[in-house]
Amino acid sequence: MTIRNELIDELLAGRDPSSVMRQDGLLGESKKALLNRLMAAEFEHHITEDRATGEGKNHRNGSTRKRVLTGDSQVDVTIPRDREARFDPVLIGKYQRRLPDFDDKVISLYTRGMSTREIQGHLEEIYGAEVSPQLISTVTDAVASEVAEWQSRPLEPLYPVMFFDAIRVKIRDQGTVCNKAVYLALGITPDGRKHILGLWIEANEGAKFWLRIANELRNRGVNDILGAADASRHIGSLREPIAVVDGLKGFPEAINAAFPQTLVQTCIVHLLRNALAYVSWQDRRQVVAALKPIYQAPTADAARMALDAFEAGPWGRKYAAIAPLWRRQWDQVIPFFAFPAEVRRIIYTTNAIESLNSTLRTAVRSRGHFPTDEAAIKLLYLVLRRVSKAWKMAQREWTAAITHFAIMFGERFSVE
């Protein structure tokens, strides 16, 4: 519907243009008038229905005032009352003090790393809305049941590639602030869509912890994982699913206990970073160039020859610790070379999940620490919910990769 210019001119007549968009100007007055008119129309419909059913004794019995919070202001609304006390408004319920867009605004600010008191100051400064930190906590705590439902929701039966990683957050536990790891699993579906599968907090990782997580994924409907990449050690065979992980202690053993046919693959980028820890800053560019023929080799045998050549070359002799580092983890590296370039680009690194971790770290950096595990999970879940809304398309290389998955894994892989 187009609003007539004559009506706009009538509303603007005699007003200071600079005050029109302020909450105490025309914009705020229009919102208040519209809410009051909607409440009046809802009440009139209620009374008309009462009379149509033959209960004509019910009629208006004054009104009450209620201050409600919207997404950008607070508005005083007049709520009509009826003599029979049967009027239950839909727009603003009997005990409702906030409109849905207010809750959305608070959660949006919260997921961007603002504390409850920072949100309180922001709402008061920008919108003139006076709210307590307790109210803001109530709004964000309302997602607790949503988090529990999300954490236990059914999953897809097949994830061709799964990424695992962890970030450290400070959480108060029994009066002491300590570092705890928040573990994150990201799965890619056969059609290339990314799914966050879960969040878990554990003080210490290990085989028992990862076995519990692997069994949880199985109980939630996951039957197969075509691949996981690990920066610790490789367990698996070529014709199995892939899991990409980032140096997680005890993970390879646990994932293969629950999914015996899953291929566990190291994170090549993290292996490079570990190697560069031995290299001075001025030499890093040249050392990276010297290592590139290893992980870009067409086959595992060619990669081994490239590693031998690096070790015998000037950079291998100058930084003698690098070649043994690669050799110690060689069993984790070689599954990578069985894949074509399209699949390699997908499992080459855990950057798919590290970009998420970067967003999560930005949100938690201003917090200092969390009072409970639940508070940490709540914030991280809300951040992930916001980020995942942008995941609408498959990765660029996925269309080419699925052909290779279908050939290499046979009946295990299907896009249906």
Cα-based radius of gyration, to the nearest Å: 29 Å
Task: Average the pLDDT over all residues and give the rounded result.
Answer: 77
- Main sheet? 6 strands, mixed
CATH topology of the largest domain: Nucleotidyltransferase, domain 5
Q: Give me the side-by-side strand order of the main sheet.
A: 6-5-4-9-10-8
Care to give the gist of this entry?
This protein is of the alpha/beta class. Helices cover 47% and strands 16% of the residues.
Helices and strands in order, then pairings?
Elements lengths: L4 H8 L13 H27 L7 E10 L4 E9 L17 H12 L4 H12 L5 H9 L2 H8 L6 E2 L1 E13 L2 E13 L5 E9 L4 H13 L4 E2 L1 E2 L13 E4 L5 H8 L4 E3 L2 H9 L7 H12 L4 H13 L1 H5 L3 H7 L1 H4 L7 H7 L3 H15 L7 H16 L9 H12 L7
Parallel strand pairs: 3-7, 4-9, 8-10, 9-10
Antiparallel strand pairs: 1-2, 4-5, 5-6
Helix pairs in contact: 3-17, 4-5, 7-8, 9-13, 10-11, 16-17
Question: How would you describe this structure to a colleague?
Answer:
The chain is an alpha/beta fold and 416 residues long. Helix content is 47%, strand content 16%. It has four domains: 5-90, no CATH class; 102-142, no CATH class; 157-266 and 329-416, Nucleotidyltransferase, domain 5, CATH 3.30.420; 270-328. The longest helix has 27 residues, at 26-52. The chain is elongated, with a radius of gyration of 29 Å.
List keywords for this structure.
416 residues, alpha/beta, Nucleotidyltransferase, domain 5, 4 domains, six-stranded mixed sheet, 18 helices, 10 strands
